[in-house]
Amino acid sequence: MNAGDIPGLVQAGDRRALARVISWVENGDPRTRSVLRDLKPPATASRVIGLTGAPGAGKSTVTSALVRAFRARGATTAVLAVDPSSPFTGGALLGDRIRMQEHATDDGVFIRSMGSRGQLGGLAAATPQSIRVLAAAGFEVILVETVGVGQAEVEIASAADSTVLLVVPGMGDSIQAAKAGVLEVADVLVVNKADRPDTQATLRDLRAAVALAPGEWKPPIVPTVATAGDGVEDLVAALDKHDAWLDASGERARRRLARARDEVTALAFGVVARRLTVPDELAARVADGSSDPLTAAEELLAAAGFAMD
Questions:
Q1: Nearest residue to 137 (alpha-carbon basis) of 49, 42, 48, 6
Q2: Which of 60, 136, 264, 268 suits a disulfide with 39, CB 3.0-4.6 Å?
Q3: Could you tell me which of 256, 188, 248 has the C-alpha nearest to residue 47?
Q4: Over the stretch 249-263, which tens digit does the pLDDT of each residue have?
Q5: Which phi-psi region, left, alpha or beta, contains residue 214 (left: φ > 0; alpha: ψ -120 to 50)?
Q6: pTM
């Protein structure tokens, strides 16, 4: 497989080429630049759906159920499953490909686990570019499953068209969502494991929180028991309704503009960060108190040709 052939192979949906390019993206390989430059925009934009929630909420099970539902429609589907990183290899510690074995032989499905590599916010730093690669490969639906997130880790909202927030009865998730603002990033709320005794209380709490939510779109609340497939059709219907609203309201264009801006900014910051090496002498002056960190930062930026506001 020659490097020059890879963009064409990616756009033809070649699985080996896809896996190779995403590995390059994850590892910061310089060949990524030429591949991304040569990829043509897809004829039809992909639907990017993010799934987030606390550990144990059943994200992988719901993701697998959504793959099954979209494949039943004939839609090619890709999954980016962001897992905690191995402390030894930096790779994904918990491979979601293992948890989604039922789709392993389906040529219309591509599943990739990627390690978070210490990145905060529930996503890997390579996620936005990996989404771009999968979109160029023509996948109609791209599902992005985050690591188990907490109250402030809501980065998925900037990467997806529709964000699904999973909560579980009895885990206090609904209260945490309401008080921490996580609810603000949810386009659809899923109460998974809805066969538990506390389900009605959780639904009641979430309905009260949604009623107070600002904005035109009020997140629908969908109870599911994903292990049994219960409620999955309702979840897909809620996602379809949100997808239609994105176009009707103009919100999709706004979100994609913001996503592009964030991606460009992150790449530019990455280049700047690699070029800014703090000299030992400058760090020593801050450490011994002869200089303050702000002044030292101004000196560092000035030496690199940047002005600090």
A1: 42
A2: 136
A3: 256
A4: 999 999 999 888 888
A5: beta
A6: 0.85
